[in-house]
Amino acid sequence: MSHTAEIIAVGTEILLGNIANTDAQMLSQSLSTLGINVFWHTVVGDNPQRLRQALDIARRRADIILTTGGLGPTYDDLTKQTICEAFGQKLVLHTDILADIRAFYQSALHVPMPENNIQQAELPEGCTVFDNPVGTAPGCAFEAGGVHVLMLPGPPHECETMLRRCVEPYLRALSREVIVSRDIMTFGMGESSVDQLLHDRMAHMVNPSLATYAKPCEVRLRATAKAASQAEAEAMLAPVVAEVRSALGDVVYGVDVKDLAEVCFHLLKERDLTLATAESCTGGRVAERITALPGVSSVYRGGVVSYWTSVKADVLGVPQAILDQHGAVSEETARAMAEGARRITGADIGVSVTGVAGPDRDERDNPVGLVYIGLATPDGTFCRRTDSGRRRRDRIQDLAANHALDVVRRYLTGLPIEQGRT
């Protein structure tokens, strides 16, 4: 049987934009792997009437309802009470849970439990209790009228702990299908161009399905299959991934990988090579992305943020004649910066970025969005020129960082480097 789910997040702070609804993302990802279709996300404030309306709508269109938030001890934590009223469930005090909450306050917080926490030990009669080892609000699940209702705490670390320990086993028993997805990551082709190449194929796909998602500075394609087993779903996805790779070529930089930095890290490690960076307009973004990865010290030697022209000359050793003749934003300077990074750090490969991030043209009237990427290697020095146009400053910087990582990726895999891509 195929199940449909709705996730209802309870919390005025989400509606006000004070916090992000990270629970819904986490739950959707988990339910997808369990073969449960998540068709609706709802957010409602701490208001019993509006929550009741949301529940009445959800029970008519979904057979699994998951709520997050509103299980605390304060006056506005009314999720349990409202849900029980909506589904005709009786709240009863669980003395064993109350004892656990009291013990948690004594052992973890070293204070007596406030009396208003008693309501956290009140749960629907006959429900399945979800233990909360990292907080005071237990969760629970019950079935009424063919609808399974699961109540989870709002704090993300509590919600995730309960999800892994209790919710996933509960839901796994309800579903006999699995949903498997493959994320095909690309850089160098816009979403419209990707869609144009694959539109006819995507439009006629049902299971597996294929969809594009524009991320900042790159495009992700997600291929998804539903089947009776993980192996069967993966077998259905294999030809889809192969077809996308064939259609898009070398703009595909990986499948089920986090980003370009991760790909470069693994390629460098496989080839026992080291990398150094020299950055100007990106202000250290390339180095930041690389050093965010655990264990990257085995391949990354270091970097220089050479924002001033004098730093390019004095630290990286860019010849003053190049700077005077061609300027800081030029192919010649990008090449010299990459060579300087490689020389001063002893790295096998040096990558550099210099360009105009805006908001205005530079002193040589170079346009906003013009960026040069240099790459110094044991096989010579290369350069890519890109022009992303008058985009936002942060978008130009992020694109430039992606270009830098892309040229590293291309060199390490034997692909063409120089051609600019936006």
TrEMBL record:
InterPro entries: CinA (IPR050101), CinA-like_C (IPR036653), CinA_C (IPR008136), CinA_KH (IPR041424), Competence-induced_CinA (IPR008135), MoaB/Mog-like_dom_sf (IPR036425), MoaB/Mog_dom (IPR001453). It comes from the Bacteria. It holds the Pfam family CinA. SUPFAM superfamilies: CinA-like (SSF142433), Molybdenum cofactor biosynthesis proteins (SSF53218). Residues 6-173 form the MoaB/Mog domain. Belongs to the CinA family. This is Putative competence-damage inducible protein. It comes from Oscillibacter valericigenes.
